[in-house]
Every structure is written in C-alpha cells, then in structure tokens.
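Objective 1b. Sequence-to-structure analysis of Enoyl-CoA hydratase/carnithine racemase.
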Amino acid sequence: MSAGMIRTATDGPLRVVTVDRPDKMNALDSDGLDALSAAFEQATEPVVYLHGAGEAFCAGADLTVVSELDREEAVAFAAHGQRVTRTIEGYDGVVVAGIDGAARGGGVELALACDIRIGTPAATLAESGVSLGLFGAWGGTARLPRIVGETVAMDLSLSGRVLSAQEAREVGLLSRVVEDPRAVATEIADNDAAVLRVIKARLRDSAPAEQQEQRASQAFGDLIADSDLDAVDGRDS
C-alpha cells in the first residue's frame, strides 16, 4: 500500500512502514499523520518495522505547516500527533523503530512510542524543539522521562543537544546500534506471535505488582495450554 508519504509492505510476519518524504527529511503534516495512523490501524502482523526513507528517520512536524497555524490549530495539530503516537504505542503486536540518520523532535516522539528503538551507527537523535521556541507535544514529555529518566529527559529537552547513536544507546534511548535494524525486527518476528503479544502486554502492565503477577500467571497458563513443549527437544541450554 502507498498513501502519499507513507508506504507499507508485508514481508511474512513483518509489516514494514516507511515514512517516505526524503526531500523533507520525512517531516509529517496532517495528511502524513493520518496515513501513518492508518498504516498501523490496518496492520495485522505480529511485528511492525517503522523507518524512514533516504538519509533520515523523521524530522518530526513539517515546520512550513506549523509556522502557519494559529493557536487553536496548533492545539489541534498537537492533539493529532498525540493520537498517532498512542496508536503506535497501542498496537497489539511489537513495533520496532529502525533509526538510520536523523530523528528530530516529533521523529523522536514517534520512536518513543515504539516498543524497541534500534539505531545504525549513523543515527542521531535530538529533542530540538527548544531551539525553535517549541517542545515535543506529541507525547514526548510523558514518554521520554519514563524511558531515559527525568534527569536525562530534562537535559535533552532543555538543551536540544544532538545525541550520537552511541550516546543514545548509553542513556537508553536506543537499545542497540547495528548496521541493519530491520534484521532485528525480522529476528523478533521469527518468534511465536502469541508469545510476543503476551510479553509486550505484561511488560507494559502498570497495575500494582500483585495484580501484575496474577495476570502473568494466567497468561503463562494460557500459553502452556496452547503449546507443544514436547516438540522442543535439544534446545540450547
């Protein structure tokens, strides 16, 4: 499927979603946000791989559009981006962001909504809004401190400094730095789809600890009931 600046393709258990506007560093306007949301709403694969075409992951909001907004339109545009990042975060399967090149502002916020962020050595990330008199309003102020801690989130958001791939890995913004992030997504997609969904749900559970444990026990029992462990012989120890 192709919808303007968003392309999708299926590769077995993997859905590949490409932000395809390389001449604008894959910056998104309202139509792009709608198309990105639709790509996730229509996906059914256990793993979605989100990446950008060309030499950037995503530069965030299209500033030529943002500069023309009045106050009420700006509020609506921010809410629009928040709905899209919630759609990504709430996807039933696993979402892997493959970051090759620049991720800036809203692009970082898209990545934060993913379950796993994998960078190449060329990846650079920055919450650059502060240098423009703005900030990340697509959910980044909630997700960034949860992922990297409040101290690092304050530093990145208030300074707007650019992190190299290695620096982003060190603060927990990236989980790996590899030459081919899509290979990581493919590796994950080789696992059982039901197990992937269960693990994601359990790791994302914010209920009190005892309730989490009860849910984990029930989910474990469901998996055992549906599994064929007798077929797993000679596995690596």
